Amino acid sequence: MKIGVCGIACEVCPRMVKGICPNGEAGCRAKENRMCGIATCAFRKGVDLCFQCLEFPCETTKQGPISYGYCQFISGREL
Asked: Model's pTM, two decimal places?
């Protein structure tokens, strides 16, 4: 199972399911990506997965595709 930079399985990502993932079958990776702010942010911060960042969850993660509430849950920073 591939895990995208945002932390969800690529196979269930809404963009992958719709066939509009900018990386195709390879899935999202941390790199400059005009279609995915999460991938670009992770690349610029030097992490492979969004949740490895010390600032996670942040405003960028609110863009989705993963639920911000879930991001808070896995980070241990629930409101």
From this structure: 0.76
